[in-house]
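Go through this chain.

——
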Amino acid sequence: MPDKDLELSPEVLRILLRDHTTGKNIFWATHDYESLGPAYDYHSEILPELITGEQGTVIRPRVLKTKANQTDRSKDMAEVFTPSWICDAQNNLVETALSSSSSGEDGKGLDYVRTTCLEITCGEAPYLVSRYDAATGEPIPLGKRVGLLDRKLRLVSQNTETSDEWLEWAKVAFQNIYGYEWQGDSLLLARQNLLLTFIDYYKAKFSQAPPAESINTIADIISWNLWQMDGLRGTPPDYPSPGELQDNPLPDMFTTYCMIKDWEKNKEIRYVDLLN
């Protein structure tokens, strides 16, 4: 069964809650939690104290939500999570296409780790990592995980020896995996799933947890590469795009297109500019 709460350090959780477009935290963007009080309002930021301690089970994976809540989210946001066997079949096709364009790195095939993938409307990111079956909640052993990032990290583990080498290639893998999601709770779960996957593979390779500094570094990459966005407008959910404000100008903070990171050039870019 998925982790019942975010068992991460306060610093890591703060990183995973960042929204680099607004300069704030990601926000709820769902009415599901409003009965808990004003801090859980649709437009309110997700704060650490709202989801830890006694509130540690407030955010739950879809499979642990009530059937009524699942139905409502499907109706309101078309939220339907894909079984792992379907993710596996589709990812096999993606991997074949990506591998055919990778020439290999020193004969090891590590160029595949550099290939860039994007999961749109990613939910809890089952196409990127598969710590559990999103449809059933059943945990998936490390060797049988089917996510695109799982495949990259297995390749990293097979072709590296030292911790430093592994961490460097793992960083490359994370820098080339992207996804966006509307609802803040699902986005946070996706970010958590990616980070815990990093920890899982490092532990399997070296029989210990990765250094805290490396966990923070990967968490920062994740906070950039998995972001909160309305995929039709390229803005944070419910933020109007500049073109919609000709007769009703608002401050820049309300008209900002979502920002992501081009890691190769080490600069911030607007997601919408990639579509041109």
